[in-house]
Design a protein that fits this description.
alpha/beta; four-stranded parallel sheet; Ferrochelatase_N; Rossmann fold; lyase; 12 helices; binds fe (ii) ion; 366 residues; EC 4.98.1.1; binds the ligand C=CC1=C(C)c2cc3[nH]c(cc4nc(cc5[nH]c(cc1n2)c(C)c5CCC(=O)O)C(CCC(=O)O)=C4C)c(C)c3C=C
């Protein structure tokens, strides 16, 4: 094992609090080789594709990486912006907004770094930034509200894989999920209400979450239940009747069964059965990306309209909206509570009581 030893933590400069924001990642550009490199890293992750390596790797390198990159590259081209990948551009703004808020709230120095699970900036490079800032306590925050082994679990793997190379480890905390946090639910409800204020209330509201293979759920991945709870809490808070909403899963890959119902099927059925207006949101994504812009805002819009629907609205992710940055900052402060050496960034008793009362009111405490 080759250890990363220098520069090690220093005693002669103040220690800072390190926050590592992790999201999924995106290709460096829309070129086919860059997309292939990204997909190769993504699809080689045993948390993402659990199939035996002996079966999967020949299929991946022999078939999938010869065909899919060109198709994905075309899709990425359709969403690419002046600032590059939407996911990366938004994530950078989230990092900067959270850093600004934390600096204002904390007494001591704080460093917020962004690491992508696949592609760049890597988790290893983000950890190196934190180490250079003398962050001896690090809070790892995967920006996935609903835990899944395929995303949150894999982000954990990326952190621990890099830390295996460090001699002097930081003190670590890890945010596991925030699918039922009152601040998250309230932010989603506010974003829906804001959309309705501008575009009117649709007949139906659809929550579209990224899917996972059904098999992973059967083996114990809690993701499906956490998605349901998010949707239920938002609906209860909106006071929407049962026949006015649905929940579905998008982005299926391959031929095996994934979590159902599929977003595509649901929207086609709704359109065909006479539902005229729909709003769709993807609350499992903390930032808009290929899967929301191209798949939900474009592809699925077509499906619904072609099936007979008349009005289709996409409610954007929380992205870098101030309410979202406030919520991420609150979650970070709460998870750092009690860390010595910092001006304790904990909630006061009043804020804690208020949050617990809100959680009870939402029915989110179990
Ligand atoms: C093959 C299995 C996949 C699983 C399981 C999976 C789970 C999963 N993914 C996200 C979030 C995102 N996925 C994104 C893109 C994307 N996802 C897969 C495959 C699986 N995802 C692929 C191959 C791709 C690449 C694009 C493509 O070729 O279709 C993205 C967007 C990245 C971007 O650059 O914009 C996100 C975000 C979640 C939340 C999740 C399980 C809960
Ligand atoms: Fe995905
Ligand atoms: Fe997709």
């Amino acid at each position: 094992m080759k250890f990363v030893d220098t520069p090690a933590y220093r005693h002669d400069v103040p220690e800072s609090l390190g926050v590592l924001l992790i999201n999924l990642g995106t290709p460096d550009s829309t070129s086919v080789p860059d997309v292939r490199r990204y997909l190769a890293e993504f699809l080689s992750d045993p948390r993402v594709v659990e199939m035996s390596r002996a079966l999967w790797l020949p299929l991946l390198h022999g078939v999938i990486l010869r065909t899919r990159p060109a198709r994905s590259a075309r899709a990425y081209e359709s969403v690419w912006t002046e600032d590059g990948s939407p996911l990366l551009a938004i994530s950078r703004r989230q990092r900067d907004g959270v850093a600004e808020r934390l600096s204002a709230r904390l007494g001591g120095p704080v460093k917020v770094a962004l690491g992508m699970r696949y592609g760049n900036p890597s988790v290893a490079s983000a950890l190196a930034e934190l180490r250079a800032a003398n962050a001896r306590r690090i809070l790892v925050f995967p920006l996935y509200p609903q835990y899944s082994a395929t995303t949150t679990g894999s982000a954990f793997d990326a952190v621990t894989a890099e830390l295996r190379r460090w001699r002097w480890l930081p003190e670590l905390r890890f945010i596991n999920q925030y699918h039922d946090d009152p601040a998250y639910i309230d932010a989603l409800v506010a974003s829906i209400r804001a959309h309705w204020a501008e575009h009117g209330e649709p007949e139906r509201l659809l929550f579209s979450f990224h899917g996972i293979p059904k098999d992973y759920f059967d083996k114990g991945d809690p993701y499906h239940c956490l998605c349901r709870k998010t949707a239920r809490l938002v609906i209860e808070s909106l006071g929407l009747a049962e026949d006015r909403w649905g929940m579905s899963f998008q982005s299926r890959l391959g031929s095996s069964e994934w979590l159902q119902p599929y977003t595509e099927t649901t929207l086609k059925q709704w359109g065909a059965s006479g539902v005229k207006s729909v709003h769709v949101l993807s609350p499992g994504f903390s930032a808009d990306c290929l899967e929301t812009i191209e798949e939900i805002d474009e592809e699925n819009r077509e499906y619904f309209l072609e099936a007979g629907g008349e009005h289709y609205g996409y409610i954007p992710c929380l992205n870098d909206a101030p309410a979202h940055l406030d919520l991420l900052t609150e979650l970070i402060l709460r998870h750092c509570a009690g860390w010595p050496g910092l001006d304790a960034p904990t909630e006061d008793a009043e804020a804690l009581a208020e949050r617990q009362a809100r959680a009870r009111a939402l029915g989110a405490e179990h």
